[in-house]
Structures are given as C-alpha cells and as structure tokens.
Amino acid sequence: MRTSTPARVGQYTALLAYLVFLAFPFLWLVSTAFKPPRELGSLHPTWIPNDPTLANFRQAFDEQPLLRAALNSLLAALAAAVVAVLIATPMAYVVARRRTRLAKAVTGWVVVSQAFPFVLLIIPLFLVLKNLRMINSVPGLVLVYVVWALPFALWMLAGYVRAVPPELEEAAAVDGAGRVRTLVSVTAPLLAPGIVATGLFAFITAWNEFFFALVLLKTPEKQTLPVVLTHFIGAEGVADLGPLAAAAFLATLPSLVVFAIIQRRITGGMLTGAVKS
Predict the structure, then answer these.
(1) Where are the alpha helices (DSSP H) in 175-240?
(2) Superfamily in which the 64-267 domain is placed by CATH
(3) pLDDT tens, position by position, 33-65
(4) What is the DSSP string of 166-181?
(5) Membrane-crossing residues (predicted)?
(6) For 120-144, what is each residue's pLDDT tens digit?
C-alpha cells in the first residue's frame, strides 16, 4: 500500500521538525562556546559568533581539572559498560530461551525496576557501598552504574536473542556442535549488533550520569566530568557561561565519537552469515 504524497510530505516535515528540536540545544551550545564575553551579554544574540575565540576553552581548562575528570568518567563508563554486557548477555539468553516462571519473574522485575527513581535507590546503595568500604571510589561508582544499567541491558539483549531463529541453533546441534560451541560460533556473532548497542547505551548512561557521582564521590580528584561542570556555577547561581559552554561541548564529544565509530555495527544486518551454504 503506497503512501500518498501529502502523507509523505507530512512525515518528512515532522521528521525535520524533530531533528531541529534535537539539534537546537547542541548548536546553540557550540555557538556559545566560541563567543567572546561581550557577545554572550548581547541583547541580540546571533547563531554565528562575530568574533569567534578559543578563550573560553583555555579558561575552562585553567579553572577546573577537566582532563582528570574526563579520565574518571571514561574509566567508570567503560568499566560499567563492559561489566553490564558480560553479565546481561548470558542472562538474556536464558530469559529469552527458557519459558519458565523464573524467566517471566525476571522480565517483570526488569520492567518494574525501571520505575524506581534515583532518590529511592541512593540510600540502600550508599549503605551497601559503605559496608563494602567503597564510598568515594571509582570502583564503587562503577558498581552502582552496573546495577542501574543491568535491567535495561537485560531487556534489550533479550529482545535481540528472541530475534535469532532457534532453528539455527537446532541446525548446529544436528551437525554435531555442542551447546557451548553453538553459542560461541552461531548465536554470539548474530548478537554482535545487540551487544554493541547495549554497550553503547550503558556507556552513554554512565558518562552522562550526575546524581550518583555527586552523592558518592566527595574527593575532588575522583569526581567525574558532569560533577565538575557544576563548578562553573557560582554560589549565587550565576554561571560562567562561556567556559561552561566550552566544557559542556567537550563533554559531549566522546559520546558522539563512540556512536559514530560503532553506528555501522548497530545498523548492520542482524543475520549476516546466518544462511548456511
């Protein structure tokens, strides 16, 4: 059934409006990062700076330890993504393939856990980390990120596992492959796009997370990048807008770079190589 021309025009118009809605904050952030102070206070702001400058970036690095904070965020985000994927992948396979009451209970737990706000979780997590003596440590923050990302990662990977035809595993078993060989040689390659997408989700979630890092990390040397960005706001609530925009712009780059690198794997064919010759 073909889509009519007015409907197609409406779809593209809605898509364009959505893209503009998403791109506006980032484009304005980039514009602000390169504006000198006199343009930041102008009553008639412009999209393109009349006199672009890198002074905001220099000032941002001079005022706050951005590189150290970025390294802390990178370590925490990478570790959380890897651990969450390693734990969620076998769990997702069991949940998707085993139609038992336990699997249904796990699925229900995943859905319900997403309704919990941060403020309800921080107190029990704080007490657990205190007993483990992991307060004010990056490993403790990684543990919290894994706990927070695991339910959604499990839900995502379970959907990818269900998309893999069970007949492929049955064919491998007929050919003499054992369970482990089938999972490694047949199922795992087909799950690669889902694993990459789940890892990307866990990484971006941990990289941008603010609340847990603010509560659990007290030493300035261990604070992550989102927490350090708040230091550009004074006690009176007045933001140092130029350096803040420059630092925030730099903070968004890793997520964009990671997505640009692996986006082909996310959108690649899920069943590449599934046809048996």
Answers:
(1) 179-182, 188-208, 211-216, 225-229
(2) MetI-like (1.10.3720.10)
(3) 899 888 887 777 788 888 888 989 999 999 889
(4) HHHHHHHHHTT--HHH
(5) 12-34, 74-96, 108-129, 141-161, 182-207, 244-262
(6) 778 888 888 889 888 889 899 999 9
Helix axes 241-267, 55-63, angle to 10 degrees: 100
CA 38, CA 58: separation in Å to the nearest integer? Answer: 17
For residues 261 and 157, which has the higher predicted lDDT (pLDDT)? 157
d(CA 189, CA 83): 19
Average pLDDT over residues 215-240: 84
Terminal CA-to-CA distance of the chain, rounded, Å?
34
Q: Which tens digit of pLDDT belongs to each residue from 169-195?
A: 778 777 777 777 777 777 888 888 888
Nearest Cα residue to 225 out of 23, 35, 77, 118: 77
Confidence of residue 69 (pLDDT cuts 50, 70, 90): very high
Radius of gyration of the chain (CA): 23
Contacts of 193 (CB under 8 A, 6+ apart): 160, 265, 266, 267, 268, 270
Q: Are 46 and 28 in contact (CB under 8 A)?
A: no
**Percent share of the chain, pLDDT over 70:** 88
User: What single letter denotes the amino acid at residue 273?
Assistant: G
Q: Rounded to 5 degrees, what angle do the CA atoms 152, 15, 197 make?
A: 25
- Give the integer Cα–Cα distance in Å for 40 and 240: 10
Q: At 239, give phi and psi (nearest 5°).
A: -90, 140
Where are the domains positioned within the chain? 5-52, 64-267
AA identity, residue 236: E
247-256 residue pLDDT tens: 999 888 887 8
